[in-house]
Specification:
By secondary structure, the chain is α/β, with parallel strands linked by helices. About 30% of the residues lie in helices and about 25% in strands.
Length: about 650
């Protein structure tokens, strides 16, 4: 007898076989089921119109067909219905089902299983057939966006039968998402199950936010089809205060490259403010990843237009199926990665140049373990034409947007907390005197902008820097214009050990000690400094190396309220006089700690000293940025 083409197991009263027959896809179809009533009903429905299709009363766990009899075995939900639990008896039946399917299927034939892909169902099927040497591919064929018919996506397992090679452990496992034709190879059953679970979660999310507004901001990553790495990070931000009108239901905002760390784009409150000012009921912000290449705004729009509609708000008018794409200045910004490396202490890091607001460019150091935080930043000077060099004509070819800008602008402090730390130096000196000769210890080098500024603007200051990671000294020197000299020395050492040694051997030698040290432990609610730097025994050593009228300046970044209160209490135990300056829009708080209460000054005096210090630093021929406003920095200082 000639081999039949298709076997449908557990056919029930589904119209699938009839539809396949009627559209000419296949006529030689054998349907089996254990229900006598179902088989009689289906025979009557097709007897006169589908003569080549048959319905047989048969148990799929014990089929009467000979081996290698079918080219395709089709299962629409039968496996899902059978594998309702993972009890031994149920798993035994599933093994029987798979064994029978394997027996009646030809080599090169396919078992097609339509399923909702619950994790235990998918895992069982994939493990069984991959261990038999079959090629396993999972296709997503329908999602929650398909006429709202499904909440969960529908998948088809395509198991292709190959002869098992004795001793071979090789597995071919693939997933083919709905939005792409090319399958992606995965390494294990666990990865395949996880990939399917991601798509199920996404479908549930789309279903939920298409029906009700988001009370909290929703975040998700869209990954690159080839590499599987994140390509876009999306945040869904709803603004209940925006009154709906004809065209303000939904918009997409592309965050310029390199600016995703800014407060407006990188925090919940900032995005909420952005959405309200944009005037849309739902704003979808899109951050671009540094490892990816983008073909401008038009390319991004073409790539995302279909996907973003799955995240549209409830009640989106039919006419607004083309949503507006917004950005700052209408472009996607500029990001040029200058250097990538890793170190045992800091992990992977990058140095990149990004275009800021307007025409300024900035160089940034980013630790990839905390990629949304700028570790160090410096402004770049615009290239200066050489003597006799003519300006480029407008009709000439423009320079590449990634062409390296000029040198580092050492006069500019990009970080608000660095400006506050510098302002704190006005606490030094006598009642009527500003600091002259200074001995300053900075723990934490980063890109070196803080110690460089102190060195350059306090002409009599001698600056010692302690940095635990030699890679950071190399980065600061090569990429951020840092250099050592008679008044600037870097000590590659653990700050804890260095301060402890100084306390034992050379107490009371520094006018100012500044801590700007990040923590590598992301499980603690304090990212700056590491907890060991604010323990009482160590803080007492810091006090020991300060001169009696000196100041200890600490950059504190702590999101854990209880931990922060504990740190402040410890600081108050060690230092009788404690000021705090909170940085607006940031978690940073700058603490100014003095060894004795004699240095206490009221806000008016602090403001006057800060203005005097600023005047002293603003010397002719020396660049000065109006944003420093040292007096303003100290107006918001509070005594704890």
């Amino acid at each position: 007898r000639a081999a039949s083409q298709v076997l449908v197991v557990g056919c029930g009263n589904s119209e699938l076989s009839e539809q396949m027959y009627d559209v000419g896809m296949c006529e030689d179809i054998v349907n089996i089921d254990i229900s006598d009533a179902v088989i009689r009903q289906m025979r009557e429905r097709s007897a006169s119109t589908r003569p080549k299709m048959s319905y047989l009363l048969m148990d799929m766990l014990q089929m009467d067909f000979p081996e290698a009899h079918f080219q395709v075995v089709l299962d629409k939900g039968t496996l899902d219905a059978l594998l309702t639990n993972e009890e031994e008896a149920t798993l035994g039946k599933v093994d029987q089902m798979f064994a029978e399917i394997s027996r009646v299927l030809q080599v090169g034939g396919r078992y097609l299983c339509v399923s909702l892909a619950q994790a235990h169902v998918l895992k069982k099927a994939v493990e069984y057939f991959s261990q038999e040497g079959w090629v396993v591919r999972v296709h997503q064929v329908a999602s929650s966006g398909d006429k709202q018919q499904f909440v969960l996506p529908v998948f088809v397992y395509v198991m292709t039968k190959f002869r098992k090679i004795p001793g071979s452990a090789a597995q071919i496992l693939e997933i083919c998402p709905e939005e792409q034709d090319k399958p992606m190879r995965v390494e294990s059953t666990e990865q395949l199950v996880a990939a399917v679970k991601d798509r199920q979660h996404y479908a549930l999310l789309c279903s939920q936010i298409s029906k009700t507004p988001c009370r909290e901001q929703v975040s998700l990553d869209l990954c690159d089809k080839e590499s599987g790495k994140p390509r876009y990070t999306l945040h869904v931000v709803d603004s209940p205060s925006v009154k709906p009108s004809r065209d303000n239901h939904f918009a997409i905002f592309i965050i310029p490259q390199g600016r995703e760390t800014e407060w407006l784009f990188g925090t919940e409150e900032g995005r909420r403010q952005l959405a309200a000012s944009a005037g849309f009921g739902r704003l979808l912000t899109v951050a671009l990843h540094r490892e990816q290449h983008y073909e401008g705004m038009a390319g991004i729009q073409a790539e995302l237009s279909g996907k973003v509609m799955e995240l549209a708000p409830p009640g989106l008018p039919t006419r607004q199926q083309q949503v507006p794409f917004l950005s700052v200045g209408g472009d996607i910004g500029v990001r040029a990665v200058r250097h990538c490396d890793s170190s045992p202490l800091s992990g992977e890091f990058v140095v990149e140049d990004v275009k800021g607001d307007g025409t300024c460019y900035f160089r940034r150091l980013i630790f990839l373990q905390n990629r949304n935080v700028v570790q160090s930043e410096a402004r770049l000077l615009a290239p200066t034409p050489l003597p006799g060099q003519k300006k480029r004509r407008k009709d000439k070819k423009k320079s590449s947007p990634t062409e390296p800008p000029g040198a580092i602008d050492k006069s500019y402090l990009c970080c608000e907390h660095h400006k506050a730390m510098v302002a704190g130096l006005c606490l030094l000196g006598g009642p009527d005197a500003l600091p002259g000769e200074l001995a300053v210890l900075v723990v934490g080098l980063g890109g070196g902008s803080l110690p460089l500024f102190v060195h350059d603007y306090f002409s009599q200051a001698r600056v010692a820097v302690v940095e635990i990671d030699p890679s950071m000294l190399e980065v600061a020197t090569r990429w951020f214009g840092f250099s050592q000299g008679d008044r600037m020395q870097v000590h590659v050492s653990d700050g804890l050990d260095y301060v402890a040694k100084l306390a034992a051997e050379a107490p009371a030698q520094y006018d100012a000690v500044m801590f700007d040290v990040d923590s590598k432990d992301l499980t603690v609610g304090m990212s700056c400094p590491p907890p060991a730097f604010v323990e009482k025994p160590f803080l007492q050593k810091v006090k020991t190396i300060l001169k009696p009228e000196g100041v200890f300046v600490l950059n504190l970044v702590c999101r854990d309220a209880r931990l922060k209160e504990s740190v402040l209490a410890t600081l108050r135990d060690v230092f009788p006089l404690l000021y705090v300056r909170r940085i607006q829009g940031e978690v940073n708080e700058i603490l100014f700690c003095q060894p004795g209460p004699a240095g206490r000054r009221d806000p008016a005096e602090l403001g006057a000293r800060a203005r005097a210090l600023e005047g002293a630093l603003r010397q002719p021929g020396r660049p000065w940025d109006s944003s420093y406003a040292l007096a303003d920095m100290l107006q918001a200082v509070h005594i704890l």
